[in-house]
Amino acid sequence: MATSRESTVPYEIPADGAAPVRAGIPEHGRVPKYYWLKARIAPLLEELGEGEPLPTERELALRYEVARETVRQALRELLLEGRLRRAGRGTVVAGPKLEQPLALASYTEGVRKQGRVPGRTLIGLSRHACPGDLARELGIAPGDSIWHLERVLFADDERVGLESTYIAVARVPDLSRDFDPDSSFYGYLRERLGLRFGDADERLETVLATPREALLIGTPPALPMLLIHRLSRDPAGLPLERVRALYRGDRFSFSVHLHG
Q1: Which helix (H) or strand (E) holds 101?
Q2: Which residues contact 257 (CB under 8 A, 6 or more apart)?
Q3: Triad 144, 150, 156: Cα angle to 5°
Q4: Interstrand relation of 118-129 and 98-101 (parallel, antiparallel or unpaired)
Q5: Mean pLDDT of 119-133
Q6: pLDDT tens by residue, 11-69
Q7: How far is CA 61 from CA 15, 29, 69, 214, 247, in A?
Q8: Please, which residues have CB within 8 angstroms of residue 4's CB and are 6 or more apart in sequence?
Q9: How far is CA 172 from CA 8, 72, 244, in A?
Q10: CA distance 54 to 91
Q11: DSSP string, 163-218
C-alpha cells in the first residue's frame, strides 16, 4: 500500500550535523512524519534534562505543526526506547539506562556502581513442595521443600524489575526468620551463611510482561521486557539457586566483557 504524501516528509539532516544512524531510513529519503518528529523532539529532551516534564501533546502539535496523533506515535516510540517515562499523569525526560553486567554480582552492587540507590519491595516469601523439573535443576528430590522469594526491584524510587528466586529450604532453613527482604539476597548468603557462588548459566531473552507482572512493575503490558533465567552453582558445582528476573526494556541494558 502506498504511503500518502501527507504522512511522510523528506528526511533532512539536522542543522547541527548530528544526523541519526540511517537504520530505518529508506534510500529515497522519505520517512513517516512521526519519525521526523522524533528527530525534532530529541534535541528538546537534551535541553530539558532528566526528570523535566515534556510539553503537552497539544503544545508539541502546535510547535511542530503536526496532528496530535503524530505526536502520540512519536512519544510512544520515545517511551519504548526509554528516552521518556511516565510520571503521574504526565511525561518526563528519562535518565540514562541502567547498565547491569552479565556476571555473578548482585543487583545491589550493579545499581550502586551507577550512583543509584537500590531498593526492593517484598511481594511474597513462600515455602512449598518442589515440582519435578525445578527439582532436577536444583539437584533435589521432587517434593522437597523450596523457598520462593518474589520482589519488585527499584532504582532510586523507580520500579524497574521483578525478581523470583527459588532455593532449597535445606540450603537456607531460616530464610523466613532472619532474612531482611529489603536487603541483598546475595549479601545474606555470603555474610550470614558463608555460601559462595562458583559459576552460573544465564539466558537472556525479550518478552512482554503478563498483566500481573506489568501491574507489579508499573508498566504498560506492551512494553518490551528483558528476561533473565539464571541457574547458579556453588564452588563445588552443586546447584544453589534458580532465578527468573524481569527488567524493564526501556530502563535497562546489559553488558558483558569478552576476551580471546
Answers
A1: strand 98-101
A2: 101
A3: 155
A4: unpaired
A5: 95
A6: 554 544 444 444 555 555 577 888 888 888 888 888 888 888 989 899 999 998 999 99
A7: 21, 23, 9, 30, 33
A8: none
A9: 60, 50, 19
A10: 6
A11: EEEEEETTTSTTHHHH--TTS-HHHHHHHTT-----EEEEEEEEEE--HHHHHHHT
Question: C-alpha grid cell for residue 171?
Answer: 540450603
CB of 138 within 8 A of CB of 150? no
* 251 class by beta-carbon count within 10 Å (0-12 exposed, 13-18 middle, 19+ buried): buried
The cell for 238 is 552443586
Architecture in CATH of 98-255: 3-Layer(aba) Sandwich (3.40)
Predicted TM-score (pTM) of this structure:
0.69
Residues with Cβ within 8 Å of residue 27, at least 6 apart in sequence: none
* 82 in Cβ contact with 253 (< 8 Å): no
CATH number of 5-93: 1.10.10.10
* Sequence ranges of the domains in the chain: 5-93, 98-255
Quickly tell me which residue has 557462588 as its cell.
197
Q: Which pLDDT score is estimated for 45?
A: 86
If one counts every other C-beta atom within 10 angstroms of the C-beta of residue 52, the result is 11
72-107 pLDDT, tens digit each: 888 888 887 778 877 777 888 877 777 776 666 667
Q: Give yes or no for residue 126 having a pLDDT over 60.
A: yes
